[in-house]
Design goal:
The protein has one domain. Helices cover about 15% and strands about 20% of the residues.
Length: about 70
């Protein structure tokens, strides 16, 4: 049995499985369909070893460099 995980934008509620910081990378494992969430720092640390084992590597780290819109000006 394979579990499909729909791609969705990661939010501030998604936390890194290693340190608890906001997650910007989601890795879906080929073997189980389970997912792991990582902050940018930990995603870079495991990417070379983990990425070949994934069916999906959702990387939203480009959002780290986007300035948030100012509300109320």
């Amino acid at each position: 049995m394979t579990t499909a995980v729909a791609t969705r934008e990661l939010t501030a509620l998604d936390r890194c499985d290693r340190c608890g910081a906001q997650a910007y990378v989601r890795a879906v494992l080929q073997s189980s369909g389970g997912e792991l969430l990582f902050c940018g720092h930990h995603a870079r640390a495991v990417e070379a070893n983990l990425k070949p084992l994934t069916s999906e590597w959702q990387d939203e780290t480009q959002r780290l460099h986007v300035k948030p819109a100012v509300v109320g000006d």
